[in-house]
């Protein structure tokens, strides 16, 4: 690739990685997967691409010293690392088994999250359940907030993901 092409390529990969990461967070909330696996994918791929392509990055931009290492590692980790992690998560989610299993879990902990950008005052209830020895936080719409202390269980339809990580669907609160 020529220098002019690389000046378009690196920012494009960086922005694409950030957009995919936002989508991946939504998918992560509905998947039982340990965060260390996802961070491992991000850093392994980011560091590998850093080692393979660092010379080209240095030739493309006029950074030097610590700035060169900082900006290049940020591009590789946020760009290539987030893209690889998103591909992993999205593949696990969208290529999962089609047959769900219904399970009931007891609510272990209750908390809330602020609403979206224009609805900050609409608190979203978040419940933690013990899912096979791991705590999983489930976020529900604002309409469940007022009665959140009354709910005792969460009924989930669970599918087995493509890579073996469970996918949560149709979550329903019960008293």
TrEMBL record:
It comes from the Bacteria. The chain crosses the membrane at residues 7-26, 32-52, 73-95. Keywords: Membrane, Transmembrane, Transmembrane helix. The keyword Membrane applies. This is Uncharacterized protein. It comes from Maribacter algarum (ex Zhang et al. 2020).
């Amino acid at each position: 690739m020529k220098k002019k092409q690389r000046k378009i390529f690196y920012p494009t990969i960086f922005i694409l990685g950030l957009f995919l990461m936002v989508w991946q967070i939504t998918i992560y909330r509905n998947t039982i997967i340990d965060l260390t696996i996802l961070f491992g994918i991000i850093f392994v791929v980011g560091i590998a691409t850093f080692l393979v392509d660092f010379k080209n990055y240095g030739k493309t931009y006029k950074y030097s010293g610590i700035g060169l290492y900082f900006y290049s590692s940020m591009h590789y980790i946020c760009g290539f690392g987030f893209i690889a992690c998103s591909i992993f998560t999205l593949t696990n989610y969208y290529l999962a088994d089609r047959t769900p299993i219904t399970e009931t879990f007891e609510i272990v902990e209750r908390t809330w999250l602020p609403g979206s950008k224009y609805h900050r005052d609409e608190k979203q209830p978040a419940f933690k359940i013990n899912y096979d020895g791991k705590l999983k936080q489930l976020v529900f719409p604002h309409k469940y907030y007022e009665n959140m202390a009354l709910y005792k269980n969460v009924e989930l339809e669970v599918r087995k993901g493509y890579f073996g990580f469970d996918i949560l669907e149709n979550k329903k609160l019960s008293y």
